[in-house]
Amino acid sequence: MRKILLLIVLFTAVVTVSACSTESGFDITSETEIVVGLEAAFAPFNWATPTENGFTVPIANQTGFYADGFDVVMAQEIADALGLTLVIRAIEWDGLIPALLAGEIDLIIAGMSPTSERAQTVAFSDPYFQSEQVMVVRNDGNYADATSLDDFNGARIVAQLGTLQDDLIDQITGVNHQAALNDYASLVTALLNNASDGFVAELPVAMGIVAANSNLSYITFIDGNGFTVTPEDVTVSVALRQEDTALLSAINDALNAISTETRNGYMEAALTRQPQ
Amino acid sequence: MILASLPPRDAFFETVWYLITTYQQFFFTGIFYTIMLSVIGTVGGFIIAFFFTIVRTTKIDTLRQSKVSIFFTIVSQKFINIYITIFRGTPMMVQAMIFYYGLSRLQISFWTPLVAGFVVVTLNTTAYITEVLRSGINGVDHGQLEASRSLGFSHGQSMKLIVLPQAIRQSLPAIGNEFIINLKDTSVLSVIGVTELFRATQLATSPNYRTTEGFFIAAILYLSMTLIASLLVNKFEKTSLRKEAMV
Q: Which of B111, B112, B206 is opposite residue A43, by nearest beta carbon?
């Protein structure tokens, strides 16, 4: 009996000691690879595919899975500019920032908006893409002809859990703000099965969804009729640990070298590669 | 490119076939991890539950045991009872979130979602199998323990050699059932990003939004796994019953 207890105590001690071997900050001069975390479930920014092509990068923590999408192309550009080998890890959305803080990954390039809430925990680069917020609706639904947010009075609107889009829903007067869902596949399913009347999405995501679903369409709003957003809400940035200041300026330099036209071109190419 | 051949939305079975052929690698990986998590979780849970049961059923003997030994026995029995209450009383999804994100703070390099998944399934199954073994022990006549104790076996020896083998044999259907439950319940580990069958299906359907078709495949795969598992459990039970009959 006592032997077992001794073993348990020893095991706990070993785990505690090994836990102390933590990683410190990212040193550009000595590191050879840079580990980027993304969801691999947020097309066209990033998604997973079993087949390789000229744009894919193998997902390091999942053999046989390859990451593709706009984020992967941008990650490759950044890694090339820094002279580092790109390693991609697929991590659940809610786990990305914890993984970054834990040193499991060095960067988050996952279509993440640099909100002030997140900026309390992580540092953000300059934006690498800017988009607008649109509403995805059914073609045969009551809201297919909507032009302003006021038209969505009384509508059942949903968005992805923990996203800017979910917060924006409350700007619609008289809206039925439904409980947020985990991913875009669930949002599309909710909309197609008439469990919701619409969901809020970023334009490139909405374009991908509509291209894959002919009975859905998205509504863009002219200025003043749509959501009120701050610039940092409609842009996406690379997230990194706050102490990695040298890495931050290196990434901003790398991003500045890529023109807006080139970036938009990457996004359009990602949209055509997305299975639809 | 095969990606271009996604069938129209109303073509249900064509879409199912498209997903199977395009994402077979994802589904295989998902099945592999679902089975691995369930097997290791059930076997690991059983082994820990075995030791827990011995500790839990120990009767304190104030005349023969030292004070330290009595103290340790009481503390470990209390610990096991609290452990069972907590793990049976909270959803495995919640346990997964707490274990993975909680221990991630310590920045342990090997603490990946998969490792956290194995730990959570094992700890969860331990709690259930410890309860199963207790009812198995209640089913063994108390006279057997008394007889082996009077023949000079220690409590641990009589549990290990006499009572537990019979209790385990009686508990086999319930333990097999625990394995089948694990096959299905490991799907909750997708919340922390373990690529078992549920998350593999999510990954396969997320770029094309064919959720219903994808999870139709997942349902068939889960059903096949649980059917095969229950056949195996039945067979295993019959052989062990036959052995008992021979004894």
A: B206
Rounded to a whole number, what is the distance in Å from the CA of B89 to chain A's nearest CA? 24
> Considering only CB atoms, which chain B residues are within 8 Å of A189?
209, 211-212
Q: CATH homologous superfamily for A133-232?
A: Periplasmic binding protein-like II (3.40.190.10)
CA distance B21 to A275: 14
- Please answer whether residues A6 and A39 qualify as being in contact, where contact means their C-beta atoms are separated by less than 8 angstroms: no
Contacts of A274 in chain B (CB under 8 A): 3, 207
Residues 6+ apart with CB under 8 A from B65: B73
Instruction: Give the residue range(s) of CATH 3.40.190.10 domains in chain A.
Output: 32-130+235-273, 133-232
Residue partners of B212: CB distance under 8 A and separation at least 6: A189, B12
Which residues in chain B touch residue A90, judged by CB atoms under 8 angstroms apart? 193, 195, 203
Q: What is the pTM of this model?
A: 0.77
Kindly report the nearest CA distance between residue B110 and chain A, in angstroms.
9
Residue B165, preceding peptide bond in cis (omega within 30° of 0): no
Phi/psi of residue A108, nearest 5 degrees: -110, 115
Residue A179 is given by DSSP the state: P
For chain B, what percent of residues have pLDDT higher than 70? Answer: 96
Domain locations in chain B?
A: 2-246
Minimal Cα–Cα distance from B193 to chain A, Å?
5
User: pLDDT tens per residue, chain A (276 residues)?
Assistant: 556 655 666 566 555 555 544 445 788 888 999 999 999 998 889 999 999 999 999 999 888 899 999 999 999 999 999 999 999 999 989 889 988 988 889 999 999 989 888 999 999 999 999 878 999 999 999 999 999 999 999 999 999 988 889 999 999 999 999 988 888 888 998 999 889 999 999 888 898 888 888 899 999 998 888 999 887 778 999 999 999 999 999 999 999 999 988 998 999 899 888 876
Q: Which residues of A159-175 are buried (b: 16+ CB within 10 A; e: fewer)?
A: bbeebbbbbbbeebeeb
For residues B193 and B117, what is the distance between their CA atoms, to the nearest angstrom? 9
Task: Count other C-beta atoms under 10 Å from residue A108's C-beta.
Answer: 25
CATH class, range A32-130+235-273: alpha beta
pLDDT digit string (tens) for A58-116? 999 888 899 999 999 999 999 999 999 999 999 989 889 988 988 889 999 999 989 88
Q: String of b and e for A112-139 (b: at least 16 CB within 10 Å)?
A: bbbbeebeeebbbbebbbebebbbbbbe
Name the CA dihedral angle for A122, A114, B188, B207, rounded to a multiple of 10 degrees.
Answer: -140
Please check whether residue A213 touches B, CB under 8 A.
yes
DSSP 3-state assignment of B142? helix
Q: Regarding the domain delimited by B2-246, which CATH topology (the fold level of the hierarchy) does it fall under?
A: MetI-like fold (1.10.3720)
